[in-house]
Write a structure and sequence with these properties.
Elements lengths: L1 H16 L3 H13 L4 H8 L3 H9 L6 H10 L32 H11 L4 H8 L3 H8 L8 H11 L9
Length: 167
């Protein structure tokens, strides 16, 4: 009898602690319909198993970047149709960009192309043979120094729009 009362008392706390439970359960159903384990989804998406577990249990609301990775990893699914609550959108502003920096600069365009491909600065920097700090300077417009081989790789990864950024 005491156990039953204890369970009832904890129910509201558990619901409050996992505000994204419905969305997480939807993601889990999609993953299971593909007959994928958490480990397989982790490899395909580049998101750690613990993070995926927290998303599926409703403990975490994934960022737009993580949602894009999930959509890419689980193509032709309803991942994009899950109604995620609004979250912090790092694409909405660049806290490192100087206040007087021109809008729609080459760095802003480069950043937008990278985000559209679902890549992190670190992932792209490593692929280009740069440190993430050096790549960050490109996005902030503090540098345009890029070897020709890195430019070619950038175009391959981000598309032909990237050609115009470093002329």
């Amino acid at each position: 009898m005491k156990k039953a009362m204890s369970d009832n008392q904890n129910a509201p706390k558990e619901a409050e602690a996992k505000p994204y439970r419905e969305q997480g359960q939807s993601l889990k159903q999609i993953r299971l319909s593909q007959q994928w384990s958490l480990a397989k989804l982790a490899v395909a998406s580049g998101i750690s198993v613990p993070m995926l577990s927290k998303i599926e249990t409703g403990e975490r609301n994934p960022s737009k970047e993580l949602r894009a990775k999930l959509q890419t990893a689980l193509p032709h699914t309803a991942v994009g149709q899950i109604k995620w609550p609004a979250s912090y959108d790092p694409a909405s502003y660049n806290h490192r960009q100087p206040a007087n920096a021109p809008q729609d600069s080459e760095g802003d365009k480069l950043r937008q192309l990278r985000l559209e491909k679902g890549l992190t600065q670190d992932e792209l920097a490593r692929t280009l043979g740069l440190t993430y700090q050096a790549y960050g300077r490109l996005e902030r417009g503090l540098s345009q120094n890029l070897k020709e081989s890195a430019r070619a790789e950038l175009v391959r990864l981000l598309g032909p729009e990237a050609v115009e950024l470093f002329r």
